[in-house]
Amino acid sequence: MNEEQIKAYIEQNNIQKIKFAFADIDGVLRGKVIHPKKFIDGLQSGYGFCDVVFGWDSNDACYDNVQLTGWQSGYPDKLCRIDLSTLRNIPWQDDIPFFLADFSNPDGNDLPACPRSLLKKIKAECDAMGYHTEFAQEFEWFNFKETPQTLADKKFTNIEPLTPGMFGYSILRTSQNSDFYFDLFNLLTKFNIPIEGLHTETGPGVYEAAILHDEVLAAADKATLFKTAVKEIAYKHGIIASFMAKWTETLPGCSGHIHQSLWTKDQSKNLFYDANDVYKMSDLHKHYLAGQLYCMPHLLPMYAPTINSYKRLVEGAWAPTTITWGVENRTTAIRIINTNENYTRLETRIPGSDTNPYLAMAAALASGLYGIKNKLELNIEPTIGNGYQDKRNGVLWPNLHAAATAMQNSDIAKELFGEGFVDHFTQTRLWEYRQFAKSVTDWELKRYFEII
Ligand SMILES: NC(=O)CC[C@H](N)C(=O)O
pTM for the whole thing? Predict the structure, then answer.
């Protein structure tokens, strides 16, 4: 819908309020409900929003180490703009109209901290190179019979999973909660987040959903909205949905794998497929893959942005630990799926469900395009068998501090995303590490309290 059509839609449907939101640096949605008059007035000029939304961490503590905003600048408003093409009604909230926004500027002078603006830039580069993207993120997450208050009261101990025991792809377990299960499927689809598949994964109360693929920006919008939408639908059923990458040492973590392919602009041909190649991979596909492998150590925090992300990236839990690729291999960082022409794609398996989809997709696409532009040769053989033992090409950084420091010092990261973004983002990750480094965990208490 264009501006005139949206105005007519508001008038004809007697719309009284409109919700809009944007993703912060952690991919968490922040926004407001506004009066239709305010909405219409801002369509041209933008909407002023206090820039502390990029000066807070995920717990609303103010960063003390970023240049972009802070006490030094007095936290002024910055202009965000609504993207009219993102209109969808929220079916579980009286069908209120909802829009996504970002802090991009028509003159190209975007706010470097805005993740959606960053992805738009990478998408524009891809457009200019003549490719159409098809991307999709899939998520695993744990469901608990808890509320925010019971979690706080119980201090996150003895929390009750939606269902007991390990039971992957269980028809029984989902039938036992069919109101929630079908609400997820139906309401998400109505909210223009069509679900390709929804099933239980292995672990008490864990679900997995694959979102139907779309071009990269729409796919990132859907993935970002998906997490909040699932949480909101879950609340209605007295359930808390957690997208932590790893909520307990004893169970597998939660992935946020990203599936990708490049197509001709008219979407008639999958450019990643070559029937004559031994792996059914085109040269373009191989350059894209080589680019991702090459850039991985430079961009890891964009795939694994929290302290907790690195607890998931451990051996034997279907999450990668090495810089590897393989055909139909679930122990490598990248899995190639080549079953037929239309479905041939690359799956980046590093991201957990705690990623910011805009940043993870920007990293995946930009590094793939880097491989294409520089015609990087795929000189790493695919891993056959156990990827955890294949250390020929190096291993992933073990924690957020190492990963963020490498990215902060990386010329490639700056070339791909600009100094403004790299500086801001890596400072926020180093801040995150500092918050964790000074905390005393229950692991330390159990290990040292009495014995040491
Ligand atoms: N679906 C799977 O391949 C399992 C993924 C695994 N749970 C992870 O965290 O990566």
Answer: 0.97
